[in-house]
Structure formats: structure tokens, C-alpha cells
């Protein structure tokens, strides 16, 4: 799976994107003193290119000290098990996300796509094939719960902000010192509920995709919570970073209003970036 050239979007925060088009998903390397951690890690098929890209930065055979997931969905957590076992590191999630770590379909945490497609497909398979799929997504051997006090182990200066809605245990990672917010899918900067966003990746501040969201009302409440923190830079799970008009756009999104479409700034030698 294709991975973008790493680039530093804030002090000690490096963005990489795995996949392309609607399959594109962001992950971040975050420096903590002499060590690094990873926030999200992409699809299962991205494990090897992510490993290679990370070790190009940190040195051959060297990985981050931990993986922190915003949530357990295959485009953000699919490579977690492979990478955590390879580097012998823990994977942290919010306590409410732990039931998803076994890779099984759980009706009370399901999203529309689960009910319409994933669950019927799984139950159409033979039991052995179903168990094999579940085992491939099982990260219970490496996963741990984030502390309840919102601290991020090994990452001083950052806090885990509960942002439920897209999933029951979704979190954003917040650095109040300079206003950097890694949002996962609590909010994204490409509207995956629109044809333009899905097909062309047109930048547009948006809530998560409805078809993969557990509780839409809670997701709007989470957007309002992020606005209250007044971030200066959004580093989303999908789409380019956003550093202009962040708070009013978040407020408009939480209120269900249409924010002005994000302007683009062209970067030399790279993809367009929302400002």
C-alpha cells in the first residue's frame, strides 16, 4: 500500500498518509524527548511500508515507544497488531474501546456499514473462515487501556480527550502548549459524506462518515467539545491539516451549519494543503 513522504506539520509531529483516494488514512509520529510514539497506524496492508518509513526516520530496527489509537477501525488500527509485535511495544486505546480489540462484530457497538454489509457478509461465511478473519484483527495481546486521568503515557504535555460518537471510545490527542489536536475521525478535513469528498478528496471540514459512525449525535457533541478547547491546528485522520479559522469552523460544524469551504494553499512538490 502506498505511503506519502513524511512531513513535519508542527514541532515534533510528523504526518504520513497511507493509501490514496477514499482509502487514504493519516497517521502521525510524535516526538517525546529522545523517543517517539505513533498515533494511528493505517490499514493492515500498510504495516510493511509504515515500518520502512518509520525506520528510515528513527533508524533501522528502531520503532516508536508505543502506538496510540484514536479508535479501532481497520483504516486506523489495521496495522497495529503487526507493528506492535514487531517492535515489541504496547497499543493504547480508551477503556470504552477495549471490547473492539478482539476483532469481533459486537452489535451494540455496530455502525450502519456493519449492519448493512459487514455482519451479513461474516455470517454468510463458514465458521472457520469467520474465526480466521476475527483472529487477523485481534490485538488483545498488545492492547492496553489509556489512564482514566487523560494523561498519555510517555507523552508529557499531551492529553487524551474523549470524543465518542464515531466509536464508543474514540479519543483525540491534544497538546495545549501549542494548540495541536490530532482528531482521528472525530472531525476530518475531507467530507466523506459527499460525492466530491469521496471521489476527489475536496478539503471540507466535516464530521465522520455517517455510514461508519456508531452514534451521530454524540459525534456532534464531540465536535463542540473540541471547539471549546480552541485548537490552533487540526491534524485529522483523513484530509490535510487545518490551521485557519479552526474554532469558528468547529463551532459551525457542531451547530449543524455549513462552514465555508476550506481554501487551499499549494505546497511546492506536494499535495494541496488546507489552511
Q: Give the overall pLDDT as a whole number.
A: 92
Shape: globular
Q: How many structural domains? A: 1
Number of strands: 15
Q: CATH homologous superfamily, by name?
A: Ribonuclease Z/Hydroxyacylglutathione hydrolase-like
Following the backbone from N to C, one meets helices and strands in this order, namely EEEEHEHHEHHEEEEEHEHEHEE
The helical percent reads 25-40%
Low-confidence stretches: 266-271
Distance between the termini: 28 Å
Strand order of the largest sheet: 1-2-3-4-5-6-7
Q: Return the CATH class.
A: Alpha Beta
Structural class: alpha/beta
Beta-strand proportion: 15-25%
CATH topology: Metallo-beta-lactamase, Chain A
Radius of gyration: 18 Å
Biggest sheet details:
7 strands, mixed
The CATH architecture: 4-Layer Sandwich
Number of helices: 8
Structure description:
By secondary structure, this protein is of the alpha/beta class. 28% of the residues lie in helices and 22% in strands. The protein has a 7-stranded mixed beta sheet, covered by helices on one side. It has a 4-stranded mixed beta sheet with strand order 8-9-10-13, with no helix packed on it. A two-stranded antiparallel sheet has the order 11-12. A hairpin with a 4-residue loop joins strand 9 and strand 10. The longest helix is centred in the last third of the chain and has 14 residues, at 216-229. The two termini are 28 Å apart.
